[in-house]
Amino acid sequence: MTVEDGDGDGGRGRKGGRREAARGRALHRRSSKLQQLERLVEQQPQQQQEGAEEKEEEEEEEEEEEQQRSGGLAAGGEANDDDHQRGEAVVDCGLWTLDMSARTADDMDIMDILVARHKQREHAQQTRCLCLLPALSFANAALKIASALSVIEWTPEQIAKESFYNGSVTIVNGGIPNLFSDTTVDLASNAETQALRNYASHKNLRIIYTISEVAYRIVADRNKVPAASYLKGKRIGCIQATSSGYFVEKYMESVGAKRGEYTTVGGNTCSQEPCGSGTFPAMLKAGHVDAVGFWEPGVELSARAIGSGNAVFYQDFAVYREIYSLHSTTEKLHDPAKRREIVSFVRALDKALLLFRDEPEKVYARAANAVNIQEELMRAVWPVHEWPGTIPADLPDLLAAEDVYVARVDNRSAMSAATLKGLIDKSIIDEVRGNGFE
């Protein structure tokens, strides 16, 4: 009897020990599961969803096995259908949603705890996310620029993009017309001729920053054109209705040759030797033209085509210089987020132009690579380029004079000086220099 009583007490003790052990294991799993789920909330959205689902499935299987071994005595008891229906614990910060659907009473207890904790932090989380969203939007925004990728003048944009601009920027081949044909284009670079041409029909166009000023040159064989006055009556290669055509007209006026007292001949550009038939260097060498007035490196290559020793150059910075600028539209400039990007890119351009002006050795090769020419050729034409990073004080007067030419070739009336003042917007430069409202 004593033995029986002893055996009975011992059996009950052993069973109680097993129940306590099972309950302890379940509580340990419950605590671990809560910690794991809370860590998942802090992880990336995809990791949260995948990890939570995987872990939940594994632990449900373990739970069922343990309940079977312990006779269903795991902590938590039976599920109450009224209190523990399937549900969701959702952490929604505008960036992700975590679904923790419960299937057991233990799951639901854990979920309830987690939900309660997150409800306490919900307002703070949402406020924090709302504050971060503008920054995230700005960081992910992409600036798009259309530039004439075959000309040297655009190359500071590439250096600014590669070395100084912290945002995302795409530079595509094109120019000012892209601002009006493609609404995703924010900036465009071209010479002043194209600015005038497009401003005539798009009064929302703005010149915001001058990247380069270039003293164009006319090259000829010194044996045929020993002085500038000998250009009268000659055939001069250029492209009409562009800065090349305007330069030739202005320069010829400066040496006393009126329109009709010389002939302009169109041709194709060349940026790398050998230059094929129909390009200005080949035309000068073949005698199809007597001189070439163009942007670089076409003029330098034309000189080499006839032999550098035979070439003579004519230029006058005071008569004509190309004003190669960055442009945008009033709509882009009035958009606060876009304006911040534009200001940041102009700041980057400022830093790039410092290298172009003061440390060109650092950019010769990179600039040459951007336009696919030899570094030696880039060095040869560098001296005719200036890199101001501003808006010239005499730009309004220059635009008024040049629009007479552009209007004539475009068969329209010239714009007034008052109208042309609206083409220039110095506010971005003022903001970059610290004189604006930033």
UniProtKB/TrEMBL annotation:
Ranges where the SsuA/THI5-like domain occurs: 178-362
Extent of Low complexity compositional bias: 34-50
Record region (Disordered): 1-85
Residue spans of biased composition, Acidic residues class: 51-66
The protein, known as: SsuA/THI5-like domain-containing protein
Alphabetical list of Pfam families matching this protein: NMT1
SUPFAM superfamilies assigned: Periplasmic binding protein-like II
PANTHER family per record: ALIPHATIC SULFONATES-BINDING PROTEIN-RELATED
Spans through the membrane: none
